[in-house]
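Why do we care about 3D structure at all? Because function follows from shape, and shape follows, mostly, from sequence. That is the central idea of this module. The next example makes it concrete: a single protein chain, its amino acid sequence, and then its structure expressed as tokens.
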Amino acid sequence: MKIILSPAKSLDYNRRIETPMTSTAPFIKEADRLAKKLKSMNKQELGALMKLSENLTDLNYDRYQSWEQPNTLQDNVQPAITVFTGEVYRGLAVEDFDADDFHRAQKDIRILSGLYGLLRPLDLMYPYRLEMGTKWEISKNQNNLYEFWGDQLANYLNKEMDKDEVIINLASKEYFKALAKKKLNARVVTPVFKELKGDQYKVIMMYAKHARGAMARDIVRNQYKDVEDLKGYDVDGYSYSEQMSTSNEWVFIR
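And the structure:
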């Protein structure tokens, strides 16, 4: 299985989680091109593009002014999976991963990114802010990041997947849209997590994000051979609802 995750806005480069190896992002040249275009903007332009507060504008302006390709482990260049700290990554909880867990995660997990396109867990990452849905005229023929990335990410994923391997989509709609689903050669299964509120089951985003990370962790650690085995997922009290599910959208409730 290939697990697709969204990145997180929140980053922590002080965690210093040791990993057995590091790697270089497959689209580092494209990331460098985007970063240099952002570096050429003044502070006001950057803040307006990303709709940032003054403090976040200052932070990200300084980041892009100091941009460097992340090819060597440094204080501000760390493996991607160790620095993302949003709710998904709380659920993934890599702080207790051992070397085997990291190697399996490197094989199984792919993280979509506005700047880097697609990251493997141990790809080195310089801190950034660039959401996939950002409306930005990158060139005359590219009015947003979806057009910039085009079919590249789906093509990359197709090449590295085994025959009959299934994609488990645990990313947000904003990010998964970047994968050009019609170009993917694999079956895509999208888990949805719902909570009972009153007499209805609803998606509560904070819980859903945590559950996405927890399911990714469960897949990495248990190495399911058959995607149907995932229907037995019961972490944090969730259970598969056949009645609420479709063939490729699997609903888990609690």
